[in-house]
């Protein structure tokens, strides 16, 4: 009997040792798994470094590239396009004005009613129309006749007081690459966004629209042909005359600003009554060795439709942030079994849209319920441990913080170029206490800034760090709305 008891006891002891060994092995494996994930995260964080010193290097590089782009065509990655806009709205404009925005598979018609006095809220009406797919690859006549007939229907709905107006003035926001020839004319360079109308390339966009108006019996004059960023500046300046620049940070990103005409060396001899001109920077194409680029950025760029192009945009705009997060999560899943089994959805580019990334980043629930839901719905990754969800949130934070801080550096680069950063020409962004700062307003449009709280907070934080609080308090960022609609109508009023 004693031998039996001893045997049973020995068996239990062996089993207990085996269970303990399995538990220890699992713990060791788990520690290794988390260590690999932690290493990927640490490497990514270091690669996305945006210390104040680095941001000031980006500021200086932006200002230098702006100088180069103004000196000669092709002198910089920044195109620094002339807009011929030198007369911005100031609130004295009066009457109904129109805007037409063609920027993709839809177009919009806007009518703005101006009272002749500045108003915090502008009365306006908007109608949206889809572009029939066959018109996107047909002829320029068919496309513009369709747009003109839609505008004609919109105008016909006016009340009696406006219907007898002899001639209507319109601002046309055309969001495709073009070479501006004057404030109301520009040559189409190439189509994008699914359009391919061969007979339109190389022609004056505004003239084609004007001809369509004539064919459709519309007495409408295209007074301004604009970029949506320029429209944002117009809205900002209408509400606040201290507005000197405009930034769009949404799906894409761009900037424009008011420049002295004598600083635009590549158009020597050009005169304006104000002595200034709005310059469309096309800053999405900005590049500098000081930008904190990681392997994920390199891979995203190589696999994009436009490699080696729009480098700045790919680090700060809503089109790309979610996909950078996806790429980091994919790397973590390949390095460990944290996300096992690896979902094929993780291999799909741009499946994680930036609004979803922002929702995960701003999830403040104790168990990160929203993070779990989005990972399951988007990537088919169910039952992810809370520890792993926290790591995903951290990845979102690193991507967003870098984007916002780089956008802030870009803004300060513009302010440095026009002498509004408080440095008095001193390199490195060091401020001087003996310089009297002017009140400086930057108009901002785009969901990434207006709707993403943490992005906005990181951008403001970086502005304060780069400029110093004494200087930063003189720089005001104002959110504007509908630069491509209301802004274009305001510019039509300025140039009617």
From TrEMBL:
Pathway: Carbohydrate degradation; glycolysis; D-glyceraldehyde 3-phosphate and glycerone phosphate from D-glucose: step 1/4; Carbohydrate metabolism; hexose metabolism. It comes from the Eukaryota. It is found in: Mitochondrion outer membrane. Residues 41-238 form the Hexokinase N-terminal domain. CDD domains: ASKHA_NBD_HK_plant. GO terms for biological process: glycolytic process; hexose metabolic process; intracellular glucose homeostasis. This is Phosphotransferase.
């Amino acid at each position: 009997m004693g031998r039996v008891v001893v045997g049973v006891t020995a068996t239990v002891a062996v089993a207990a040792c085996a269970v303990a060994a399995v538990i220890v092995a699992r713990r060791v494996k788990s520690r290794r798994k988390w260590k690999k994930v932690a290493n990927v995260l640490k490497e990514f964080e270091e690669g996305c470094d945006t210390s104040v010193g680095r941001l000031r290097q980006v500021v200086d590089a932006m200002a230098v590239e702006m100088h180069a782009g103004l000196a000669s065509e092709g002198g910089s990655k920044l195109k620094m396009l002339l807009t011929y806009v030198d007369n911005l709205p100031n609130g004295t404009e009066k009457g109904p004005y129109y805007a037409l925005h063609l920027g993709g598979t839809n177009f919009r018609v806007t009518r703005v009613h101006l009272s002749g006095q500045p108003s915090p809220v502008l009365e306006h009406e908007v109608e949206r129309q889809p572009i029939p797919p066959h018109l996107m690859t047909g002829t320029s006549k068919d496309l513009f006749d369709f747009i003109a007939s839609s505008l004609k229907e919109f105008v016909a709905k006016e009340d009696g007081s406006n219907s007898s107006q002899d001639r209507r003035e319109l601002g046309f926001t055309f969001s495709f690459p073009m070479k501006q020839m004057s404030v109301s004319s520009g040559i189409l360079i190439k189509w994008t966004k699914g359009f391919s109308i061969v007979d339109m390339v190389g022609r004056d966009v505004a003239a084609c629209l004007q001809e369509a108006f004539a064919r459709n019996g519309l007495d409408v004059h295209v007074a301004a042909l604009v970029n949506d960023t320029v429209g944002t500046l117009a809205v900002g300046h209408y509400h606040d005359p201290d507005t000197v620049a405009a930034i769009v940070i949404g799906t894409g990103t761009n900037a424009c600003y008011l420049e002295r005409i004598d600083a635009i060396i590549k158009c020597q001899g050009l005169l304006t009554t104000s002595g200034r001109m709005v310059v469309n920077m096309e800053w999405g194409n900005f590049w500098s060795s000081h930008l904190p680029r990681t392997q994920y950025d390199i891979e995203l760029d190589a696999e994009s439709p436009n490699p080696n192009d729009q480098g700045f945009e790919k680090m700060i705009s809503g089109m790309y942030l979610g996909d950078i997060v996806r790429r980091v999560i994919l790397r973590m899943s390949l390095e460990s079994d944290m996300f096992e089994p690896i979902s094929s959805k993780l291999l799909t580019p741009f499946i994680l849209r930036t609004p979803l990334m922002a929702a995960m980043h701003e999830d403040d629930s104790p168990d990160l319920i929203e993070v779990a839901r989005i990972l399951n719905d988007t990537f088919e990754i169910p039952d992810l441990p809370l520890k792993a969800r926290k790591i995903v949130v951290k990845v979102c934070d690193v991507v967003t913080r870098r984007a916002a801080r780089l956008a802030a550096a870009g803004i300060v680069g513009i302010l440095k170029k026009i002498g509004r950063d408080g440095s008095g020409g001193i390199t490195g962004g060091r401020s001087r206490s003996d310089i009297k700062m002017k009140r400086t307003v930057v108009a901002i449009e785009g969901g990434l800034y207006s709707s993403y709280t943490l992005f906005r907070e990181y951008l403001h934080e970086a502005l304060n760090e780069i400029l110093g609080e004494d200087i930063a308090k003189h720089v005001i960022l104002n959110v504007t709305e509908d630069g491509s609609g209301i802004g274009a109508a305001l510019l039509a009023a300025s140039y009617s």
